[in-house]
Predict the structure.
Amino acid sequence: QVQVVESGGGLVQPGGSLRLSCVASVSIFRILTMGWYRQAPGKQRELVAAMSSGGATNYADSVKGRFTISRDNTKNTVYLQMNSLKPEDTAVYYCNTNRQSLYWGQGTQVTVSS
């Protein structure tokens, strides 16, 4: 029962940009608060950005001003635009609801390195 599929990761130099996408196969997507999480090696998974059904957003302090979350309810898709990337942004990025109520996907690897 695949519920989310993340894509868009890759290798980028410091200061670069990436746009992640997550497609969720749930019929109630439009009413869910969706979030992007990341997990770096040896660290716990953390929530970096979230967007409510009404469009309210919140961000972890470490990504404020650099990352932007958005969604397209017609496509059951949530995006994460990441600018001014830093080596410390290197992690596997996942999407889920703010309550982590969906099955976790495989994630998408983001590596920031020169």
Q: What stands out?
A: Residues 38 and 44 are 8 Å apart (CA to CA). Strands lie at 4-7, 10-12, 18-24, 34-39, 46-51, 57-59, 67-72, 77-82, 91-97, 108-112.
